[in-house]
Design brief:
Largest sheet: 6 strands, mixed
Distance between the termini: 66 Å
Number of domains: 3
Oligomer: single chain
Structural class: alpha+beta
CATH architecture of the largest domain: 3-Layer(aba) Sandwich
Number of helices: 12
Radius of gyration: 27 Å
């Protein structure tokens, strides 16, 4: 475990104990080897006591012979020294990762409203320290890489603030994210070890002389951060984008959060605050349009700002300005899907079976065929006839 992480976690446990919080008497939870999770640097990982006992019996060391006697004597200290030899398979089997609130809720008893308020306040302060020491780097994605990120098919991964879009596979024929692959837009992210913690779309309006205007859309931050930390990350991303573009200010969807954070900093940059307040706004300029370079689309993503796609010109607008447009306010890819009346999931119409009995449609997972009726129903309405090996409508048996 990183020594800084170990110090922060140990100090927090001691602080809770000093304030009178009692450890829970839960042998199943009893955590060992607590640290920052490798799978998600904004979660805490640990091994439960019972799992550690199983670990002592396992042959976990790569290319390192270990005798039965060694296994018996395997201590936490020895394990810590050899932890680098743990394979991903072993880590997934024996380690658990959870968010900070849940971990300490499992660790300590929190019963009264007063304790809950104090507990929440301490956790939020700890988060700022635990997350704030990270060195987040900026990276720019464009073209098909943006589409891959949204579809979850990129080596960089978005943490918990994943797009609300329910993405199909990247190579699906019904390609929801094609517009990002071709439009004049880039995605700017802050990341740590390929884990994306903050992201925003940087839209470009390209003029005939190839000069450009920019608009920074909503800055999303992963849910592990509290409001204070989120606003700091939004401001960091905003400042990095301005620096990259060589400008002092920029219209930005998250403008208010950025101003709020700048005003709470100990060393306030009054000049920057005044510039943003007087020279920027949360929406793009009225004449700001984005070229998509798409010759018609079957599917569309949800959009925060540029919600109007003009079929004829192929331009994206932030306000309605044409009679022929698609309004990008849906998270289903604007698919023409039908709903299964049982599980309520969406499917292609051809994948649903109509029930004349109930006047409803069922997907293949929910539909049960009634041979006697040559119709469909759901399992809770049936009885299985073992002799004939068919389902029978239950009401037909009464």
């Amino acid at each position: 475990m990183n020594e800084h992480d170990k110090k922060h976690i140990t100090e927090l446990i001691s602080a809770f104990e000093m304030l009178g919080f009692k450890k829970k008497e839960d042998e199943n939870f009893y955590p060992i080897h607590i640290g920052r999770a490798i799978c998600n640097p904004f979660k805490i990982s640990y091994i439960q006591k019972l799992a550690f006992e199983d670990l002592q019996k396992a042959d976990i060391w790569k290319n390192e012979p270990i005798t039965k006697e060694d296994k018996k004597q395997l201590s936490i200290a020895y394990f810590s020294k050899k932890a680098d030899n743990i394979t991903d398979e072993i880590r997934n089997k024996f380690f658990k990762a959870t968010n900070i609130e849940k971990f300490f809720t499992l660790y300590f008893e929190v019963n009264t409203d007063e304790e809950r308020n104090l507990f929440s306040s301490i956790i939020n302060k700890f988060k700022v320290k635990f997350f704030g020491n990270q060195n987040f780097r900026m990276k720019t994605f464009e073209g098909e890489n943006i589409s891959k990120l949204y579809a979850g098919e990129h080596e960089y991964k978005v943490l918990r603030n994943s797009s609300c879009m329910q993405a199909p596979e990247y190579n699906s024929k019904k390609y929801w994210f094609e517009i990002y692959a071709k439009a004049d837009v880039k995605m700017i992210v802050l990341h740590l070890d390929k884990n994306i913690v903050a992201r925003a779309l940087l839209w470009e309006m390209v003029h005939e002389d190839e000069s450009k205007n920019y608009y920074l859309d909503r800055i999303y931050v992963c849910n592990e951060f509290n409001d204070e930390a989120k606003q700091k990350l939004q401001t960091d991303l905003y400042n990095k984008v301005c620096s990259k573009l060589g400008v002092k200010f920029l219209n930005c969807y998250s403008r208010q959060h950025i101003i709020r954070h700048l005003k709470t900093e100990k060393k306030k940059n009054k000049q920057q605050i005044e510039l943003i307040e007087s020279k920027t706004k949360a929406s793009p300029n009225n004449n700001f349009v984005v070229a998509t370079h798409c010759n018609g689309l079957d599917n569309y993503p949800y959009a925060d700002t540029f919600k109007y796609y003009d079929y004829n010109s192929g331009l994206l607008h932030s306000e309605q300005c044409a009679s022929s447009y698609e309004y990008l306010d849906r998270t289903d890819g604007h698919e023409n899907l039908s709903i299964c009346d049982s599980c309520e999931d969406s499917f292609d119409e051809d994948c649903l079976s109509y029930s004349d009995l109930h006047d409803t449609h069922y997907c293949e997972n929910c539909a049960i065929y009634l041979e006697d009726r040559e119709d469909y129903t759901t399992e809770n309405n049936t009885t299985y006839d073992n002799y004939r090996q068919v389902y029978v409508y239950s009401d037909d048996l009464s």
